[in-house]
UniProtKB/TrEMBL annotation:
Belongs to the MoaB/Mog family. Pfam families: MoCF_biosynth. CDD domains: MogA_MoaB. PROSITE patterns: MOCF_BIOSYNTHESIS_1. Residues 11-155 form the MoaB/Mog domain. The gene is moaB. May be involved in the biosynthesis of molybdopterin. This is Molybdenum cofactor biosynthesis protein B. Pathway: Cofactor biosynthesis; molybdopterin biosynthesis. InterPro entries: MoaB, MoaB/Mog-like_dom_sf, MoaB/Mog_dom, MoaB_proteobac, MoCF_biosynth_CS. SUPFAM superfamilies: Molybdenum cofactor biosynthesis proteins. SMART domains: MoCF_biosynth (SM00852).
Length: 173
């Protein structure tokens, strides 16, 4: 790839009732992966697994013109407080239907049929691309390494999501 990658501004949200900055390995893995390839981290936060707290913060980032990508980790399962899909899906203008399918295909190679317990999702809202990953560090690595690294790289061909959130290139409306 001869052209330079265009860095994106990424916000990382860990959704957990128990994690702290010291114990948040999943959020930190996403920050490390994003910055290691040249993206900027606009903000990294931890919020309780509560529909309204998640929705409030994700909404604020969607409205912030400085945030181009939002990646959440956690709250995508089936336990009583897992509510990330319910919190985020109503905010989306367009869903990325293939994201969850691709993630579960990759994850299935690692954890077998347990991958069906992930309700990860992706979509667009206000020219911001949003990806909701499971809370395990392994799942974050799988999602980043197998999908997000390429899709957030403006040089990836034949297409990528980076070019849809870069204002001078974007076609998303």
């Amino acid at each position: 790839m001869s052209e330079a990658m265009i860095p994106l501004s990424v916000a990382v949200l860990t959704i957990s009732d128990t994690r702290t900055e010291e114990t948040d390995r999943s959020g930190q893995a996403l920050v490390e992966r994003a910055t290691s390839v040249g993206h900027r981290v606009a903000e990294k936060r931890i919020v309780a697994d509560d529909v309204y707290q998640i929705r409030a913060l994700v909404s604020a980032w969607i409205a912030d013109s400085e945030v181009q990508v939002i990646i959440t980790t956690g709250g995508t399962g089936f336990t009583g407080r897992d509510s990330t899909p319910e919190a985020v899906s109503v905010l989306l203008d367009k869903r990325i239907e293939g994201f969850g399918e691709r993630f579960r295909l990759l994850s299935g190679e690692e954890i077998g049929s347990s991958t069906i317990q992930s309700r990860c999702l992706g979509g667009f809202a206000n020219a911001t691309v949003i990806f909701c990953l499971p809370g395990s560090t392994g799942a974050c690595r799988t999602g980043w390494d197998g999908i997000l690294a390429e899709q957030l790289d403006s040089r990836h061909k034949p297409c990528n999501f980076a070019n849809l959130v870069i204002p001078e290139r974007g076609q998303h409306g």
